[in-house]
Amino acid sequence: MSMIQKDCSDFYEGCRSRAIMLALEEDRYTGDITTMATIEDGQKGSAVVRAKEDGVVAGLEAARQVFAACDPSLSVVLHCADGDRVKKGAVVMDVKGPLAPLLLGERTALNFMQRMSGIATRTREFVDRVAHTGARILDTRKTAPGLRYFDKDAVRIGGGVNHRFGLFDMILIKDNHSDASGGIGPALNRARMFREKHQLDVKIEAEVRSLDELSSALAARPDRILLDNFSLDLMREAVEYVHSMPNKVELEASGNMSLHNVREVAETGVDFISVGELTHSVRALDLSMTIDLG
Known about the structure:
By secondary structure, the chain is α/β, with parallel strands linked by helices.
């Protein structure tokens, strides 16, 4: 069976729309009985979303899609764009229209925006910390199940770079793959043959744990090499060694990356730094929605 890569735009759109509908469904199920009990049919109102702390806002388009799913007649006015820095108290969004669907979508919209804004804010901190170097901040697959599209979109909005989305868009040979294949060299050779056979337009990356593995990986010509848990001194040595080779290979650093050490890692000369905490240890940005009946 052919495995030629296809345009993934429909897949990504499906991830986004399905997650939004599932989030609404798990909240309302048989209906918003509080709103049904207290709000008159046809009653209209408006709401203002404000930042309760400084940060980078993200998830505005997700929120717009949430309200559209609740009622297409709801009017959403954005006062900033995804990726903008906002100050505490800043108005982020206005929503106007029928009050019942507005209240139905309130928590779901805020959940998406708060999580995504938290990720974007943290990502921007990392990006700013390494801005004087050529290193770029990568995300990982350590995302909340079902929310990967939004988690990775938030990293992009925060100035980071998306690594592979899933298991289908890059060949990434980790330690278990190379050990099971008899070494990094044989694993890379198999990967290159597989990519050619199936006409895959994807990169091949190999994780290495030592300078010896690095040397073996370079001989098999991957597109990128991941330096796993290298010390700073060993990382500098690896960068110097790779840069002395005639063929350009991208270098990615990974393993226990934090704001405390990312600057020093970037200054070794690596091309990418993958940071799991961007998405696996999210602190949501505090946002609030206030209803106005006037």
